[in-house]
Amino acid sequence: MRQLQGLDASFVALEQRNAPMHIGSIMTYDPATAPGGFVRFKDILNFIEARLP
Question: How many CB atoms lie within 10 A of CB 2?
Answer without folding.
Answer: 4
